[in-house]
Amino acid sequence: MTLSRSLTCEVCARSFARFEHLQRHSRTHTKEKPYNCQCGRSFTRKDLLTRHERLNHGSAEERDNWHEVQSPSGQRKPEDQVLASPLSDSSPGDVPSGSTDAPMAENAPSIFDAYSTQSLLFSGSDQSAGFDDPMLGYTRFLNTPGVPLDMNHLLLNQSLDHVPSLLNDGSLHHHLAETVDSSSLVPDQSQGDDDFHELKPVRCPWLVSESQRMQLQDALVPFKHLLPSFQYPSKLAIARYMGGFVDGFSHHNPFIHIPTLRQMRNEHTPELTLAILAIGAQYRYEKKTARSLYHATRSIVLDRWRQGNLFRPSTQTSSRGAHQDLSPSDHDWMHRIRTLLLLTIFASWQGDLTLTQQAFEYQGMLARGLRGIGLSESSDKSGSNWLAWIRDESDRRTKLFAWCFLNLQGFAFDIPPSLLGRELNMFLPSSCKEWLAPNEPQWLATRQISRTTFKQAHSNHLATGASQPSASTLSPMGNYILIHALMQRIYLTQQLSPDEHAQSLFPQDIANFEQALHRWRHTWRTSPQSGLDLHNPYNSLAFTSTALLGVAHVRIYCNFGQWRDLQSCDPSTIAGTLKKAPPPQRGPELVYALLHSVHALNIPAQIGISYLAHCKSFSWSIQHALCDLEFAAFLSKWLLAVSASCDLQPLSVLENRVVCWIGRVVREALLSHDDSADMLPDLGEVDLNNPQKTTQRLSYAVVKVWAEMFQACNSPWPIVNLVGQSLQRYSELIQPELAGASTSP
Predict the structure, then answer these.
(1) pLDDT of 419
(2) Measured CA distances, 464 to 355, 425, 468, 512, 514 (Å)
(3) Sign of the C-alpha dihedral, residues 504, 508, 510, 512?
(4) Quick count: other Cβ atoms within 10 Å of Cβ 684?
(5) How does DSSP classify residue 42?
(6) Compositional bias (Basic and acidic residues) at which positions (predicted)?
C-alpha cells in the first residue's frame, strides 16, 4: 500500500509520508544533532551514532562484526562491483545512468597467459578496490570542515585501516582515523527516503589501487631509457581512460574481450596497457595525455622492432590453428599485434600529417606480424572450455579486425591493401551474445557450435546465379568483414583498368558486383543480430556496415577515393582535389548509389543535426564520416550533372523523385541545425519546372549540411572535424560557379 505524503516541511515545502522522515529532513535546515557520543561527536540519526560507537569505541571483535553485518549498506560486496550485462535482465537501477560498460567477470582466472603469476591489469582481489570511490570521497570533503586535502583520504572509503599500505605517513593515518568518522558523512543506504541520495556513490568499475598502479609502472622499468620524461597516469586517470576505452572504443572495435579485461595479463608487453590508455584518453578528450601515452607506446614498439623481437621469428611460424594451445610467448606475440593495431588506429584518425605518415609505417609492420603469427585455422575445437574459447576468439577477432583496418586505410587514403582477402583462411567471429557473456554459464547458454569460414561466406556472395544465399547466422562483425572483402575486390578491379582515372568499371564487372552486394544485403537482413538502433552501442558494426555498403555502390560507378587526397590532412588540398573529380554519368543504374547517399543524410536529419553532432557522435564510427565525405561529393556532383544536362536530357521519373527527396531531406536537416536554418530562404522550394536552378541550389546545400554537422561534431577524433572543414571549403569553391550559372542567360 502506498502512503500519502501529507507531511510538509515548513521551510522548503517538501512533503513526506512519515513523521520521522520529516523530522530527519528538518534537521538539515536547523543543523540540529540530538544524538551525542561521550567523545563529543554529534549525529542527526541514532543509527549513525550507533555505528560510530561500534566502529570507534567498541572492541576489535565488535568492529569486525559490524563490518560483516552492515555490508549491504556500507562496504560494497564484490558482486556489487560487477556491472550487469547489456543482454541480461537487470533492472535499470543496477547500472548508473548513461553507463554502457560491458560486463566484467571479476573472479575469472587468467585467459591470456596461464603461466603468469603477476597481474598488470586490475586484479579483482585487491582489498582496496571496494573502497576507491571518488564520489564518496567528494561527499566527505563537502560535509567535513577542516579535513586535510590529502588525496589518499579523499579516495578511501570508511575504514582506512583496510589499506595502510597506501598511506606513507603513519601519523597522518592516525590523525584521520581519530578526527574523521567518514562513515557518518554518508547517509545509510538502507533508508528508503534519503535526503542526500544525489551524493551516494556512483560505481566506477575501473578504479585501481596504488599498488596495482605501481605494478603497471614497474613493468616499464626495462624501457626507462626510452621514456626519460614520461609521467605515468594516476589511479583516477587510469580509471577514466579505461572507461573511455570501454564506453567509446570497444563497441566500434570489438577485438579485446571486455568482460575479462581485468584479468588480462601483459606484464611482458606493458605497451599494450599504454596503447589502451592512449585510446581511452582520446575518448575522454585529454588529448595531450593521449599523445604522451601514444609516443611512449611507439617508443617501446620501435625499440622492439629495431632489436628484431617485435614479432615471432619466422622459424617459429607454423600453420597451426588458433584453437591450439599456445606458449606464454605466443600470447605476447598476440599482445604486440593488438598494440600495433591500436597504434595504427590512433595515428590514422588524428588528422595530423606526421601521425598519418606514422600510420602508414605501421601498415607494413602489422601485415608482417599477422602473416608471421598465422592467418589460417583448420578447425574450431575450443568446445565447452570458456577460457580457451575467449583466448581463441580474441585472437581470431584481432587478426580479422586488423585485416579490416588495413583495408579501411586503403579506402580512406587510396593506398593498396597490405593483406589480401585470399590470405584469410579463418572462421568468422562468434555472435554478440557469446562475445559479451560475463561468465561461463551464460556463455554456454548462448553457445553456437556451427561456424562459417570467411572463404565460404565470401564465395557465396560472389557466386553466379539468381538464387539467394540461405538465411544467415553471422554476427555483425562477420558481416562487417564480408563487406570489407567486397570493397577490397572492387578496389583491386578498378586498379586493373587501363585508364588510371576511370570512374566506372566495365559493364560485366558492374553486374557481378551489383549481384554480390545484393547477396550481402540479404545476408545482413537475415542475420539475427543486425539492427540500426542507435541507442544500442552493440549495433555499431551493423550500422557501419550499411554505410560501407552504400559506398561500395557508389564506387562501382564513381571512384572518388583517388580524388580526395585525405592523407594531406589539409582541408583546402582535399577540397581542391575533390573539385577536380569528374561527375558521374546520369542513368537508371545509379539508383542504389543515390538511394544510399540520400539515406546517409536522411538518418541524421531525422535525428536532428545539432542533437547528433553534440550528443550522439559516440554512436557513429569514424567510418561514417569517411563514407559521408564520399556521399556528399557524389550527390553534389550528380546534381551538378543533372543541372548541366537537363536541357538536352530531361529528368526521368526516377530522377524527379530523387531530386524531390533530396530537397525534403536537406530542408529537414537545415531546420534541425540553428546555424544552417538561415539557408532555407535561399534554398527555396523544389521546383521541378526549373530543374536547373533547383539542382544547383541542392548541390551546394547537401555539401553544406554535412559540413556543418561534422564541424560541430564532438567526436574525439580530429579527422571527423577535418572532413567537416574539407566539405566546408569544397562548398566555398563551388558556390561562385553556381552563382554565375544562375545569373547567366
Answers:
(1) 94
(2) 43, 22, 10, 8, 11
(3) negative
(4) 13
(5) E
(6) 56-67
Is 666 in the same domain as 548? no
Continuous segment of H or E residues that includes residue 175: helix 170-179
The answer to whether residues 312 and 394 belong to one domain is: yes
C-alpha dihedral over 698, 700, 702, 703, to 10 degrees? 170
Give CA–CA dist 61/64, Å, rounded.
5
Q: What does 406-424 look like in DSSP terms, one character per residue?
A: HHHHHHHHT---SS-GGG-
- Looking at the structure, do residues 187 and 263 belong to the same domain, yes or no? no
Residue matched to cell numbers 576507491: 132
pLDDT at 110: 37
Residue 112 lies in a domain: no
In a domain, 292, yes or no: yes
pLDDT in tens, 336-371: 999 999 999 999 999 999 999 999 999 999 999 999
C-alpha–C-alpha distance, residues 238 and 133, integer Å:
14
Identify whether the C-beta of residue 415 lies closer than 8 Å to the C-beta of residue 360: yes
d(CA 721, CA 710): 6
Distance CA 373, CA 365 (A): 12
Q: Residue 512's domain spans which residues?
A: 452-529+542-556
CA 115/CA 101 separation, integer angstroms: 29
**What is the DSSP code (8-state) at residue 57?**
T
Question: Is the Cβ–Cβ distance between 469 and 519 less than 8 Å?
Answer: yes
